Every structure is written in C-alpha cells, then in structure tokens.
Amino acid sequence: MVMSERARRLEEAWVAAQLVRLAAHAGLRRAASPFHTDARFLAWLDADLQGRAHAGEGWPAERVEGVAEALRARVAAVRLRVRSGEGAVREQAPPVRGTVAQTLDDADAARCAPRLRQAIAAGAGRELWDDDCESWVKLPPGLPTGRFVALTVAGESMQPLFHPGDVVLVKLGEAVTRDTVVVARVPDGGYVVKRVGQVTRGRLELHSLNAAFPPVTVMREPGVVVGTVVMRWCEHAPAERGRSGVS
Length: 247
What we know:
- The structure is a single chain.
- The protein has four helices and 13 strands.
- It has helices at 5-28, 39-55, 61-79, 100-109, and strands spanning 83-84, 91-92, 98-99, 112-120, 132-133, 135-138, 148-153, 167-172, 181-186, 190-199, 203-207, 216-219, 225-233.
- The strands form two sheets. Strands 1, 2, 4, 6, 7, 8, 9, 10, 11, 12 and 13 form an eleven-stranded mixed beta sheet that branches. A two-stranded antiparallel sheet has the order 3-5.
- Strand 11 (203-207) and strand 12 form a beta hairpin.
- It is globular and about 65 Å long.
C-alpha cells in the first residue's frame, strides 16, 4: 500500500504520540520511577487519559502492536546504521540499457543506482549482475562515495527492520563490519540480507532480526559479500506491518 505524503505525516504524528504514551506507561510500572512524583508528568497523564476517554479513543491491540514494531524498527535502524529514505523511491529510466554489470559505471557517474528486479532472500537464482536493468534509483544527498545497487527485499527474517517489498540501497564492496547489514550469497540459497555477527579471517556469521530464523555461516571468499545496506525505503504503514510475510 502506497501512502500519500499527507497520510504519511499524519501516521508519523500518531506514532510519535503513541510512543510517548507507551514510554510513559512503561515508566509508571517501575516502582522507583521519578514519574510517580513529577507533578508536571502526572498532570499531563491525567489530561491525556481524560482526553482519550472523552474522545472514545481506545488501544486496539493491532495498533499497539504496530507502534511497538515501529519503535523496534527505528532502534534497529540506528544500531545497524541504516538510514530511512524519505517518501517513495525516486526512479528514472536509464539512458543506457543492459545488465547491471554493463550499466553500473554509467549509473555511478549519474549519482544513481541500478535497481534489480530479482528479490533478495528469494532462493537460488541467477547472478545479480546478469539481471537486466530497467530503472535507476536516484541517490539521496549525503551518501558516501562509492557504487550502489538497489534491491527488493523478500522473506521475513529481517522484520521489523525490513519487510517484503522494501527497497534497500547497497553500497558495493566486500568489506564487512560487525553489527551492520550486508547482502551476501549463501550456498544453494541465493542472496540474503542479514546482520553481521561474528567475523573471523575465514568465516562470517550472519544473523536474522527475526528470532525464528537461525544464523547462517558463510566462507569469506570473493563474491560472497555483495555490499553493505546503507538505506531502506519502506511504504508499509505501522499498523499493517507484521501481516505480510520475510527472510
């Protein structure tokens, strides 16, 4: 579902208000919380509760779950150094046609990233570089220099940070750092997007954010690591997250 800019701003304002409320109520559960003796906070809480009661506002479980997931996603994005793209992905038709490998240099010169239609975490498939490039993604300002590709996420293993259909921007390169997110090729499993755990001279341990998925270990060989995820574009409203499937 694609949200309009106005709807997105209203949703963000609602989420911000709910995060404040969730934090306040969580703080009250601690016996030693200073909130119990803060007159300004107690006055705000009283006004907030009365205002919501008069408006008939409740706390539907689905909405609360969506807000909590949005908070977890924001925390994960900061910890793993993944920026959030503003609005929808800005795409344009490439002036040259060909595979990703053939158009990568031209896209780099135009401050763009080839967008691959092959989804990551979708099982074994052809090499990413052999994918036909039908569009470029315009790079936002402030990104480090380097070459990039844009990929679509599939599967459930990286929820709540990534959802099926999200677009991620990957800075190409085989260098890896613990607690970042990389796109890597796993034996007989195609390409995956994972958090980097333990790093040794010969192996990488890759983790999912969704605890239902076990870690994956890959050898540190040429071509295994595609690059590091530096940005994501997510068009899911918080209340809708968690209802579609990831890996």
